[in-house]
Amino acid sequence: MSLPIHATPTERLFYWGVRIFSAIVLLFLIAPILVIMPLSFNPEPYFSYPLSGISLRWYHEFFFSERWLTTMKNSMIIAVATTILATFLGTLASLGLTMTRIPGRTFIMSILISPLIVPVIISAVGMFFFFARMGLTSTFLGIILAHTVLATPFVIITVTATLQGFDRSLLRAGASMGANPTEVFFKIMLPLIMPGVISGGLFAFVTSFDEVVVVLFLASPEQRTLPRQMFSGIREIISPTITAAATVLTILSTAMLVSLEFLRRRNERLRGIRS
Amino acid sequence: MATGVLTSDGIPLKVKLKRAERRTKLKALGLVVPLFIFILFSFVAPIGNLLLSSVYDPSIKTLLPNTVASLDQWDGEGIPDEYAFAALVQDLKTAQKDEKVALLGKRLNYEISAIRSKIQSAARKIEKLEQGPYKQTVLDMEPALGTRHFWTLLKRSGSSFTPHYLLNTIDMRINQDGKVEAMPQDRSIYIGIYGRTLLISLTVTLATLLLGYPVAWLIANLPTRSASLLLIFVLLPFWTSLLVRTTAWFVLLQDNGIINDALIAMGLTEEPLKLIFSRFGTIIAMTHIQLPFTLLPIYSVMKTISPTYMRAARSLGAGPVYAFTRIYMPQTLPGVAAGCLLTFILSLGYYITPALVGGPTDQMISGVIADSMNRDLNWGKASALGAVLLMATVILYLVYDRLVGIDKMKLG
Predict the structure, then answer these.
(1) Could you tell me which of B199, B258, B273, B361 has the fewest CB atoms within 10 Å of its CB?
(2) A161 in Cβ contact with A196 (< 8 Å)
(3) How far apart are the CA of A118 and the nearest CA of chain B, in angstroms?
(4) Could you tell me if B212 lies within 8 Å of chain A, comparing CB atoms?
(5) Could you tell me the pLDDT band of residue A106, with boundaries at 50, 70 and 90?
(6) Complex ipTM, two decimals?
(7) Is residue A135 predicted with pLDDT exceeding 80?
(8) Residue A172 belongs to what domain range?
(9) A246 inside domain
């Protein structure tokens, strides 16, 4: 979209105004994340420029100290378990929800999606009361269950979206050629909806890996996760290790974004959408 | 007999089809059931339980069982007679022995201010009382135990359901005559907290709309290649951990942080501005975090608006401003509504960001809930405030569902 020759002065002003304004807004969006990255190489424990040198001190602290390492391990265990559970349950439910018009579909859907909308603090406090009675607080299982609740809505949303674009006549074609329902599912349907399932799983992973409020209430020091450690890194002991942690996490989420974009393109290609 | 089309095994096709349909429906339900039960157990039940504990609190009845039971015979006039005081002495002795007096004092203190220390000292003295009559002795010992307020509270506690916590969240209380009245001005705090939460959420929503709308428009109207590039600027922060972004703002807003350094270097200010632990810090960090949530739905609606409408308007003689405001903007309203509602709903429940970069006395409702849980250990209050926040969220969620539809919610 370029500016036509006959543009009026108002249009010219508008054209450049929007561009400059957008540049500032996009800078506002990206700058805070980029600005703290170099700070993680600061040899001094300060949060300000100019740097007095380059040091991997905080990365050393992050990757080799017992405190940070354990939290990283805990986060991984919880996030992987959550991803498996949420993807499995969420994909099954999405298959059911899109298979046919089941009675009360809207109601069921709004219950299943509601953990996304209910403020986390309410879920966390409610789960704390309820799980405490069953001895699930201060256990990995409790946190995994809680995170699965928060993560399944993302799986449902992505997988149902994929399934809505799925051509059901392929299933009938498979069946008419003699495949039994199991074969049809595993050989035809699953490979085609796989990109959607994987991106649902990625969402689930990120949800769990980032979550801190539920962990604040349900976890004891043994289940302390990386975000929880960053939370106390900001609140209690202000240590520049948080900038190293933030940088590592940003790189992780960039990798995540790239794989999602790749999956989206693959999904479109599989569905025959050319762009 | 009317014969329809029969299948090979002699059953009417209609019946057979119905059966097949029912089987598919059952299969579909069977797939949904595991998750549904899981969500009922790990989410709906805990929240139901939370709502219940905002009105259900048997602690007084449990700690003073005999006293509460004896008050069945009290008509509620003046203060009760010897029988009640005898029961109270008995209960307080048990409580003192079980070291439960502190708990009782804390609970009573929610409704009668400054009774905690009085009940504790009374319990210590009562421990040594051998025999009655108790009424006069107790009254001489601790006049606070002879007030109508104290006894009407105990009588109300005969029922484990109490409106106290919910009333408290709207700055009301039950006075000594059992009537509901407004909290005195200096103790009304919650209305202020709701107001603050709403104000911060509205400001953030408005800020994200003002910043996001032009950007969404630009991205929607650029050629695909440059649009994808710009979208990355929006999506990367969207994907970055909330805590990372909060950390970034925590670092940037420090008194000797980058923003203050830059402002001083440019000569705009001499003293570092108070950016962190202030309302400004909360709003700017929340705006940064919520901006993609508002922008993306607007962008996806703008993508679907055909440029021919604008051209038609212009060719019919509308000026650029007129065409934009009358033709283009109304078509973007669904996206604006979706994005703003989502941001507003999410903003209401913010906890981490205000807790880390906001002022300690400027917390939003979630922060107050967390404090009542962790610091005050007042679970009834936490539950009641949770109920209020939940109600507000559910109403907005229904509006969102009506306007946008939850199954149209898109991610990324």
Answers:
(1) B361
(2) yes
(3) 7
(4) yes
(5) confident
(6) 0.88
(7) yes
(8) 65-270
(9) yes
